């Protein structure tokens, strides 16, 4: 059986920017079995993460791949007094509510969360919230 490998995923632009990775193995017959994948915001983020993952065993590799946000969405508030919601997906899992916030005080873009761990995403909220309170 072929070993699990990490393959980088690049966009189609001339820059050939690395946007993520796939953990997979390819059989001698050419069949691909994908185990996990993740997207990153920049080439540096992807290369840094790949360098970290290559030195870990498969269990940790999968855990790391599935702990990164691959998609995010901002659900606007429904009016005065209600809060907007940030929801994210990790790998192929369902949407998860990350946090809510008053969108007249803080502004977020879905792209800010892609490639981050849950802790990093929550830290972004804390950083923006603190900056707002101190302003």
Polypeptide structure, described:
- The chain contains three helices and six strands.
- 16% of the residues are buried.
- The chain has two domains: 5-66, no CATH class; 69-134, no CATH class.
- The protein is 28% helix and 32% strand.
- With 135 residues, the chain is α+β, with helices and mostly antiparallel strands.
- The chain has a three-stranded antiparallel sheet. The protein has a three-stranded antiparallel sheet with strand order 4-5-6, with helices on one face.
Distance between the termini: 59 Å
Radius of gyration: 18 Å
Mean pLDDT: 75
- In quaternary terms, these chains amount to single chain
Global shape: elongated
Helical region count? 3
Portion in beta strands: 25-35%
Helix content: 25-40%
Strand tally: 6
Query: How do the SSEs run, as a string of H and E?
Result: EEEHHEEEH
Question: What number of domains?
Answer: 2
Can you list the strand order of the major beta sheet? 1-2-3
Low-pLDDT sequence parts: none
Task: Name the structural class.
Answer: alpha+beta
Q: How is the main sheet built? A: 3 strands, antiparallel
């Amino acid at each position: 059986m072929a070993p699990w490998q990490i393959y980088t995923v690049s966009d189609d632009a001339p820059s050939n920017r690395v946007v993520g990775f796939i953990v997979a193995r390819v059989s001698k017959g050419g069949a691909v079995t994908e185990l996990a994948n993740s997207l990153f915001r920049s080439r540096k983020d992807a290369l840094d993460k790949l360098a970290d993952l290559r030195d870990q065993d498969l269990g940790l590799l999968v855990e790391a791949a599935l702990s990164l946000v691959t998609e995010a969405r901002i659900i606007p508030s429904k009016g005065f007094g209600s809060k907007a919601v940030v929801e994210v997906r990790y790998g192929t899992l369902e949407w998860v509510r990350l946090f809510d916030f008053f969108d007249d005080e803080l502004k977020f873009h879905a792209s800010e969360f892609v490639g981050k761990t849950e802790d990093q995403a929550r830290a972004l909220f804390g950083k923006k919230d603190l900056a707002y309170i101190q302003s």
